[in-house]
């Protein structure tokens, strides 16, 4: 069993055009194309992960609704209709997760995980009170700062600054994060963040109630984006739901220090569903 867990999973990276936008796709597993793969090699289940991250062009692709439509277009265009889906959302990805369920009931989603879910009152959260004025009212000042200061920097300086930052936070540079200092990326992130503060206000109880048996919520105890009061409110509204509170003090940005712990938990929650496929 131990050897199976430690077995290395092949990862393929692709860039595709989806809704007219270059889209990075990471495929984990011994397959490259779901449509052309022989039936014997096709996966029975696809796990679709939406991070804190197109058959036709979408207006406002970098806005919140555009991101929802982008993920829907990817699933409808690049995934065979018969492939069962598990959707995992983190942070604002949980809002997108619920929107996918609401807008595409035809998709064969068997389970949906919402990790540290920012699905309500974002601007009222402790972090939201700080982020809202920055992203909504001072956004253009951030744009000017990014373009005037960071645009002239050579790649070597950007890479050096990122390495210093990661070292100060005691993090390993296991993935390429150079684009975090690209003004275009920073501007798009600020634009999307501003929309999140303004639009993610009321929890979508109707969609949650409709799909409650498929949903698992996981709230943090030290999360300044969705404080424990939000957990208590949704727990009262849906006492029969699978709504969990972290007991390990895992932070909202778990990918930086606790990726393995979260992966192990989600894999454990999925065991029963996988055994039925």
From TrEMBL:
| Record's signal peptide | none
Q: Which SUPFAM superfamilies match?
A: alpha/beta-Hydrolases
InterPro entries, alphabetized: AB_hydrolase_fold, LDAH
Q: Where in the cell is it found?
A: Endoplasmic reticulum; Lipid droplet
Query: One biological-process term from Gene Ontology?
Result: cholesterol homeostasis
Q: Which UniProt keywords apply?
A: Endoplasmic reticulum, Hydrolase, Lipid droplet
GO CC, alphabetical: endoplasmic reticulum; lipid droplet
Q: Which reaction does it catalyse?
A: a cholesterol ester + H2O = cholesterol + a fatty acid + H(+)
Tell me, what is one Gene Ontology molecular-function annotation carried by this entry? sterol ester esterase activity
The answer on whether this UniProt entry bears the keyword Nucleotide-binding reads no
Look up the EC number in the record and give it: 3.1.1.13
Main subcellular location: endoplasmic reticulum
The UniProt family comment states: Belongs to the AB hydrolase superfamily. LDAH family.
What is the name of the protein in this document? Lipid droplet-associated hydrolase
Q: Which species is this record about?
A: Neovison vison (American mink)
What lineage is on file?
A: Eukaryota, Metazoa, Chordata, Craniata, Vertebrata
